[in-house]
From TrEMBL:
Pfam families: LytR_cpsA_psr (PF03816). Residues 1-22, 344-385 are annotated as: Disordered. Keywords: Membrane, Transmembrane, Transmembrane helix. This is LCP family protein. Belongs to the LytR/CpsA/Psr (LCP) family. Residues 344-353 have a biased composition (Polar residues). Residues 1-11 have a biased composition (Basic and acidic residues). The chain crosses the membrane at residues 32-54. Residues 361-371 have a biased composition (Low complexity). Residues 106-261 form the Cell envelope-related transcriptional attenuator domain.
């Protein structure tokens, strides 16, 4: 040691200058640390930009809650269960103009989704759009109040929007609607494409110019445009009834659930972001679901739900007594179903048999253990084709 410093002697390979020891390993580690720090900053910025973009996609409907009136005028909220009304709008506005120029919009599809309190099961009930029901008085955004009337279920959306549809469903079922989601044609297509298409099975070829549909028989995977035609076509598939179409929509949803689970979309960021982008840009929701955090909270609460405990069915219906081109809810079966949902009781379904292939409720006497015709999220869509 000289003057407190380490003296470095010459070695055969040359001299080592005086000063702090700087090995190649330390230089590499320092550069890695700086590089990783920069990557983390960039990644965090990109994640925030993506999060903000996805959040901004979601359209919030703050008007409907106000139009529904005070809580005291509505059914009692379920104790921990969630009831979400999913409305497929046939609006031709904006990106949907490619599907026609019809004025106004009706609810092309309406599904009452009941999520059990323990989040271990869910039931999606299709409400027939052609069902003749009592539509209550509804408050419009401009303050006017419509007169109550007896008419087709889907006319409530046309005359009074989401709020009037919710009021009609609550009056019909005595079930409190906690949240709502409105999806349009363009949004539906984007979601199907984002998961790489959805498999379906056709027992015979189908061709329908109105639905822009030309498909062979057999198992196949539909892209967004084809899927939209498949769930909307009425007269070129089955018996031409809206009930048969609802059954087909339920089969499609069942297949879509399986596709999301099996395709690895949820574990692959490069595929998940397009799905989230498609889903969020497709939705108009209430303030309770209007952010990624809120939607994620709902989705994560369902993450442990087995697919065979996700059930789809059509509310029991039969031809309307005065016009067989319309429906009416079959009693006491329909009220039995709504009571089970109100009380958060399990709903059992059996696959459609030849006797009930038209979507009619099976001839089962009403009882606490009543079974309805339907399908589960784990059902093989080709099993009955």
């Amino acid at each position: 040691m000289i003057d407190g410093r380490l003296h470095r002697s010459h070695d055969p390979g040359g001299s080592v200058p005086d000063g702090p020891i700087r090995t190649p390993r330390k230089r590499i580690l320092r550069r890695l640390a700086v590089g990783l720090g920069l990557l983390l900053v960039v990644a965090a910025g990109a994640a925030w930009i993506g999060y903000a973009a996805l959040n901004s996609n979601i359209r919030t409907d703050s008007t409907t809650g106000r139009l529904l009136g005070p809580d005291s005028s509505r059914p009692t909220q379920a104790n921990g269960a969630q009831n979400i009304l999913v409305i497929g709008s046939d609006s031709r506005a904006g990106a949907n103009s490619a599907y026609g120029s019809s004025a106004g919009a009706r609810s092309d599809t309406t599904i009452l989704l009941h999520v059990a309190r323990d989040r271990r099961s869910a039931v999606g009930v299709s409400l027939p759009r052609d069902a003749m029901v009592d539509v209550p008085a509804c408050t419009l955004p401009d303050g006017r109040v419509t007169d109550p009337y007896f008419g087709m279920f889907n006319s409530a959306f046309e005359k009074g929007g989401t709020a009037c549809t919710i009021r009609t469903v609550e009056a019909l079922t005595d079930i409190r609607i906690d949240h709502f989601v409105v999806v349009d044609f363009a949004g539906f297509k984007k979601m199907v494409d984002a998961i790489g298409g959805v498999p379906v099975c056709l027992s015979a070829p189908v061709s329908d110019n109105d639905a822009n549909l030309d498909l062979p028989a057999g198992r196949q995977t539909l892209n967004g445009e084809q899927a939209l035609g498949y769930v909307r076509v009425r007269y070129a598939l089955g018996d031409g009834s809206d009930t048969a179409r609802m059954g087909r929509q339920q089969d499609f949803l069942s297949s879509m659930v399986q596709q999301v689970e099996s395709s690895g979309v949820l574990l692959n960021p490069t595929r998940l972001y397009p799905l989230l982008d498609a889903a969020t840009s497709a939705l108009t929701v209430d303030p309770g679901l209007n952010s990624l955090d809120k939607l994620y909270g709902l989705a994560s609460s369902l993450s442990d739900m087995p697919s065979d405990r996700t059930t789809f069915l059509t509310a029991p219906r039969e031809p309307y007594a005065y016009d067989h081109n319309r429906d009416q809810f079959k009693q006491p079966d329909a009220n039995q179903l709504f009571e089970q949902l109100r009380n958060d009781q399990p709903v059992s379904v059996t696959p459609a048999s030849p006797a009930s292939a038209d979507g009619m409720s099976p001839a089962t006497p009403a009882s606490p253990a009543a079974t309805f015709t339907g399908r589960t999220g784990s059902q093989d869509i080709c099993a009955a084709s």
